[in-house]
Amino acid sequence: MTNKRTWSALAGAALLLAACDFTDNVLIPSLTGKSPTGGDRSVIPASAPEPKPQPIVLSAPPQLGQNSFQPAGVTAGQPTGTDVGTRVEQLRGDLGRLQTSIGSDNGVLQTLRQQTITNANTYQGLIAEIQARLQVGTTPGNPNLVSAWASAQETLDQISDGVGQMNSLSNSVADSSSLAAFILESVSATYGLSGAIDEDHRQLSILEDEVNRTVVLIDRLLNELTEDISRQTNYIGRERSNLTVLSLGVKNGELFSTSLANRAFGKAAPAPGSISNMENRRPLVVIRFDQPNVPYQEPLFAAATEALNRRPEAGFDIVSVVPQQGTPAQVALSANQSRRNAEQVMQTLVQMGLPSDRLSLSSTSSANVGNNEVHIYVR
Fold first, then answer.
1. Greater confidence, 350 or 101?
2. CA 242, CA 261: separation in Å to the nearest integer?
């Protein structure tokens, strides 16, 4: 618990987001609470410890359609003994087989919907369980949470499999739609056949109405099925990103929020062609690697979240900064380590859901730093 309190204090003291322009107004202290430029700059007073992130408010999965699409059936007719009457009987049989197929597809749809609801409830329960445990604090890589996370991923895969089955079902319904259109055209053409009696046209009129109702039913089924697939696909995409972030939380024993991908929209501005102007830019975050296992993940996530909330199209420049101290060999070793630190920070942001095309990686050296640092700039 001492480490938790220390971590919260570091998070409060270490990260002060820049104002509206992010880069011009405030110089961000490092994760040690010291000035990133060294010298005699006074230490920025620590702010009140930030509260731990609140659990993600779990929203219910997108609601599935609730309609049932069971055809009403085909009205029986009497043979008339004419060629047209025989043709009407054939078309009536075609419509009956089509409606049987639609009824079967409707049964499959209702079953898939129920399975999806069951899996979604299971998934939501697992996520809530993991978040509740992370909220009160737990050990990094807690095996119980690792197991729960794996179960959540498996359940989400089952929801995804259900969407795949819905896609196959939509193809079947689309074929039925084509068949219904063909039957309707055949009914219309039958009106033009010679040798019909009044009873033939009466039965043909009833059949035409029933075909039209079947066409409408199929269209509604296909539209609702398409909406179900679209909503579920978007939901699964978001949850996969959130699961990736949650896995990072389980690994560190700390609660994060939703994936940064849910906050990143639009296209990031192009990266600067050079870092030569770094002295004129103010970093969003400075991470000082002056001790093993620097706990930078949670404050980094908070800073990136705030930056994206204010500027959803923002990109981030990750710069490894090497001190200009020691022999050439020592400087080279330090540069290699600093580069690995920067790559680790970049990978952490990707795991948090930030698209990789929003990130750039570069390095420089400075006489104003005493340890390897990673500076993160908003662009």
1. 101
2. 9
